[in-house]
Design brief:
The structure holds 2 protein chains of 2 kinds. By secondary structure, chain A is an all-alpha fold. Helix content of chain A is 72%, strand content 1%. The longest helix of chain A has 33 residues, at 267-299. The model of chain A has no long low-confidence stretch (mean pLDDT 90). Chain B folds into 2 domains: 4-229, Rossmann fold, CATH 3.40.50.300; 230-352, OB fold (Dihydrolipoamide Acetyltransferase, E2P), CATH 2.40.50.140. In chain B, the strands form 4 sheets. A 6-stranded mixed beta sheet of chain B has the order 6-7-8-3-9-10, sandwiched between helices. The chains are: A mainly alpha, B alpha+beta. Bound molecules: adenosine-5'-triphosphate and magnesium ion (MG). Adenosine-5'-triphosphate (ATP) binds next to strand 2 and helix 1 of chain B.
Chain lengths: 303, 364
C-alpha cells in the first residue's frame, strides 16, 4: 500500500478555512458596501468629517441638537405610525388572502398572476398611481363629484399630503400585500391540508383550527415577512417625501434628507445622526421582536 | 355504540371515479378492514366517512341517521392518518388533549383524561415531549390516543401501520386489536396488507378499482374468495381450470386436464360449465411415489420444477401436464428440483370461484 500522500500547506489551509473562504466574496462586498457606509455615517455623526472641514471628533453635539430640536419626538412617532399601521393591516389581510388562495375558484390562475404584479413594479409607479386616483383632483374625487356624492372635489377627504398619511400607507400596502401573501402562501403550501384536516376530525371548528393549528405553523413566514416589511417602511424615504405633508413633522428619513440637502454642508452631520438613530431604533426593535418570537418558539419545543 | 352504514357511496374527481358504489355495514363496536391495492379508493372512502370529502352519490349513516349534512367537526369521528399528522407545535399532552380543549372542557379534567389515555397507549411520562422527539411507533400511539380521547362514534384508520418496521407493526397490530376490543369503538381500518386485514378485522371488505368486490369474515375471504383476482390478492395463486362434471349433495367433480378432482362443496354453476378452482399453496400435500400411489383420491404425479426456502417454509413449484402449482410445505421433508412427487389436494380445500373476472381468466 502506498503511504498516504502528505497534505501540502495549501490543502491544509483550504481544509481548515473552507467555510470562511467560501464566504469571503460575500463578506468583502458586504463589508465594503454596508459596513463602510455605516462607519462613515457613524464617524460623521460623531463629528469627524474632514471633507466638510469639520473635525470635532468625538462629540455628541449632533445627537444632542437633534433630540432637543422641536418636533423630533413627533418625527419619531410619525415614522412609527407610517411603519406599523400598514405592516399590521397588510399582514392580516395577506394572511387572509393566502388562505383564500388555497381554495379553488374560477379565475384563480389569472388572479394568482395578477396579485403579484406590484412586486415587479417600482414604488414610484405606486406613488404616481395613488396621486392619479386619490388626489383631491384625482379620478376618484372627480367621479364622486360627477355623480353628485360630493359638492366639490375639495370635499374629498385629504388622503395625500396630510399627516394622516393614508396615501403613504396605501402605497406600502399596494406593494407589501403581494409580498407577504406570497411568503405566507408558500408556507401554507409546504404545510399541506393534513394537519388542519386532523384538527377538524378532532372536533375543532374552522376558526379554532385557524387559531390553534394553522396560525402557529405559518408564524415563521409571518414573522419574516413583517420584519422585512416593517424595516422597509421605517426607513422608506421617497414615499413619505412625495406623498407626505409638506409641513413639520416629517418622518425621520425625510428629516435626514432635508438636513443632508441643506445649503450648509455641516448640517450633513446632523443627517448622519438621524440615519444612525433610524438604524438603531430599527435594529433594537427587530432584535427584540425576534428574541420574543424565538422565546415563544422554544416554549413550543422548536429551535 | 354506533353502527356505520355506507350506502351506494360514489366519489368522482372529474373523470376519475375513485369510489364506485360501495355499500357495507360496520356493526356497532366491530372492526372492518378495507383491503385493496394502491389507488383502489380506500382513502377516499375514509375521507367521505370523515366528512373531508363530499360523496358524489350515496349516503353515510350512523345508527340509521344520515351524517352527510354534518361538517367533519360535527361528526364526532376519530381519524388516524397514514403519516400520523401530529401537531408539531404542541407537545404530547397538547396533542392528546386537543379534542377536549376544543370542546371547552376544564383544564384539570383534560389533564386527568390525557394521563388516563396516555397510560392506555403506554406513553405515561411523555407529556412534555414534542412529536419530533418521538419514534414512529410512539408518534402513532400519540395519534391513536389523540383520537380515542374524544370517545369518537367511529374511528377511521388509514394504513396506520404502513410506516412502521415489521416488528413494531406486529406489536402495534396486537395493540390496536386489544384497544379496539376494550373500548368497543366502531372502526374502519384501511390497509393493503392482507395479513393485517385478516388478523385485525371482524369483517373484511376487498376493494378493486373503486368497487367493493367482496365483503365478509376474514375466513370467508381467505378460504372462499369470490373471484380469482381476490384469491390472487389474498396469496392464493393456484388456478385450476376444468369442466364441472357432476354435482352431488355435498360435493362436485371437476374434470381437469390432469385428472378428475373431487371438490368438497357444491358451486352454483351448472354441470358442463367450464369453471376455475383454487387451492392455497399451504393446503397441498406432497409425498414420494413410494409412499402414496396416484390411485388415491385427488392425487397425481408431478415434477418439482423449483424449490425455494422462504420465510421458514419450503416453497415449491410443481408441474403436471399443464398444471403449475405453488406449494408451501411445512413438513421437514425436502424435495429436490426435478424429483417426481405425488401431489394430493384435500377436497375440503379446493374452492370453485362463484364468479370470474376476465383478465385472470385469460391467464389461467
Ligand atoms: N383529490 C383528488 N383528485 C383527483 N383524483 C383523486 C383525488 N384523490 C384521489 N384521487 C384518485 O382516486 C383514486 C383513489 O385514490 P385513493 O387515495 O382513495 O386510493 P387508496 O386506495 O387510498 O390508495 P393508496 O393505498 O395508494 O393510499 C386514485 O386513482 C387517485 O388518483
Ligand atoms: Mg390511501
Amino acid at each position: 500500500m502506498p503511504p498516504p500522500a502528505r497534505e501540502g500547506i495549501w490543502q491544509r489551509f483550504v481544509k481548515r478555512f473552507y467555510v470562511p473562504l467560501m464566504l469571503a466574496p460575500v463578506v468583502v462586498i458586504f463589508a465594503s458596501l454596508f459596513l463602510g457606509a455605516l462607519i462613515v455615517a457613524l464617524l460623521q455623526s460623531f463629528g469627524y468629517a474632514p471633507l466638510y472641514n469639520v473635525n470635532e471628533f468625538p462629540t455628541l453635539r449632533n445627537y444632542r441638537e437633534l433630540i432637543s430640536q422641536p418636533g423630533f419626538w413627533q418625527s419619531v412617532g410619525l415614522t412609527f405610525y407610517y411603519a406599523i399601521v400598514p405592516t399590521v393591516l397588510g399582514t392580516a389581510f395577506s394572511a387572509y388572502l393566502a388562505l383564500v388562495l388555497r381554495r379553488r375558484f374560477r379565475g384563480k390562475a389569472l388572479f394568482n398572476y395578477v396579485y403579484k404584479l406590484p412586486l415587479m413594479i417600482p414604488y414610484l409607479v405606486g406613488v404616481a398611481l395613488t396621486i392619479v386616483l386619490f388626489a383631491n383632483g384625482g379620478i376618484i374625487a372627480r367621479s364622486l363629484h360627477l355623480v353628485g356624492l360630493i359638492e366639490s372635489t375639495r370635499d374629498f377627504p385629504r388622503i395625500l399630503l396630510s399627516h394622516g398619511g393614508w396615501g403613504i400607507m396605501l402605497v406600502y400596502l399596494w406593494k407589501q400585500i403581494p409580498f407577504t401573501t406570497l411568503i405566507v402562501y408558500s408556507v401554507l403550501m409546504g404545510l399541506g391540508p393534513e394537519s388542519e384536516e386532523a384538527a377538524l376530525t378532532l372536533g375543532a371548528s374552522r376558526w379554532q383550527t385557524f387559531w390553534h393549528v394553522t396560525l402557529p405553523q405559518i408564524m415563521p413566514g409571518i414573522v419574516s415577512a413583517t420584519i422585512i416589511v416593517f424595516a422597509f417602511n421605517f426607513g422608506s424615504f421617497e414615499v413619505p417625501f412625495i406623498l407626505g405633508a409638506k409641513i413639520s413633522p416629517f418622518t425621520l428619513p425625510v428629516e435626514a434628507w432635508r438636513a443632508f440637502d441643506d445649503a450648509d454642508y455641516t448640517r450633513r452631520l446632523r443627517a448622519m445622526a438621524i440615519v444612525m438613530v433610524i438604524s438603531l431604533i430599527s435594529s433594537v426593535l427587530l432584535i427584540s421582536y425576534l428574541s420574543v418570537y424565538r422565546f415563544y418558539e422554544r416554549r413550543r419545543g422548536r429551535v | 355504540m354506533t353502527e356505520l352504514e355506507l350506502d351506494g357511496l360514489v366519489k368522482r374527481f372529474g373523470d376519475v371515479t375513485a369510489v364506485n358504489g360501495v355499500s357495507l355495514t360496520v356493526d356497532a363496536g366491530s372492526l372492518v378492514a378495507l383491503l385493496g391495492p394502491s389507488g383502489c379508493g380506500k382513502t377516499t372512502s375514509l375521507r367521505m366517512i370523515a366528512g373531508l370529502e363530499q360523496p358524489t352519490e350515496g349516503d353515510i349513516r350512523f345508527n340509521g341517521e344520515s351524517v352527510l349534512h354534518l361538517a367533519p367537526e360535527k361528526r364526532n369521528i376519530g381519524m388516524v392518518f397514514q403519516r400520523y399528522v401530529l401537531f408539531p407545535h404542541m407537545n404530547v399532552a397538547g396533542n392528546v388533549g386537543f379534542g377536549l380543549r376544543m370542546r371547552g372542557l376544564p383544564k384539570p379534567v383534560i389533564a386527568e383524561r390525557v394521563a388516563e389515555v396516555l397510560d392506555i397507549v403506554q406513553l405515561g411520562g411523555f407529556e412534555r415531549r414534542f412529536p419530533s422527539q418521538l419514534s414512529g411507533g410512539q408518534q402513532q400511539r400519540v395519534a391513536i390516543a389523540r383520537t380515542v380521547i374524544t370517545n369518537p362514534r367511529v374511528m377511521l384508520m388509514d394504513e396506520p401501520l404502513s410506516n412502521l418496521d415489521a416488528k413494531l407493526r406486529e406489536e402495534m397490530r396486537a395493540f390496536i386489536t386489544e384497544l379496539q376490543k376494550r373500548l368497543e369503538i366502531t372502526t374502519v381500518f384501511v390497509t393493503h396488507d392482507q395479513v393485517e386485514a385478516i388478523e385485525l378485522a371482524d369483517q373484511v371488505g376487498v376493494m378493486f378499482d373503486g368497487d367493493l368486490v367482496q365483503f365478509g369474515t376474514p375466513e370467508e375471504i381467505f378460504n372462499h374468495p369470490k373471484t380469482p383476482r381476490i384469491a390472487d390478492f389474498m396469496g392464493a395463486t393456484n388456478l385450476i381450470s376444468g369442466t364441472l362434471l357432476e354435482k352431488g349433495s355435498q360435493d362436485c367433480v371437476l374434470e381437469s386436464s390432469v385428472r378428475k378432482l373431487r371438490i368438497g362443496h357444491v358451486p352454483e354453476h351448472a354441470v358442463g360449465n367450464s369453471v376455475l378452482a383454487t387451492v392455497r399453496p399451504e393446503h397441498i400435500d406432497l409425498s414420494l411415489p413410494s409412499e402414496t400411489g396416484d390411485a388415491v383420491e385427488n392425487a397425481f404425479k408431478a415434477e418439482v420444477s423449483e424449490a425455494v426456502y422462504f420465510g421458514g417454509t419450503l416453497s415449491y413449484r410443481v408441474r403436471a401436464g399443464d398444471f403449475s402449482l405453488q406449494v408451501k410445505d411445512r413438513s421437514t421433508r425436502h424435495f429436490a428440483e426435478g424429483e417426481e412427487v405425488i401431489v394430493r389436494i384435500d377436497p375440503a380445500h379446493l374452492w370453485v370461484f362463484p364468479e370470474a373476472d376476465t383478465e385472470l381468466h385469460a391467464r389461467a
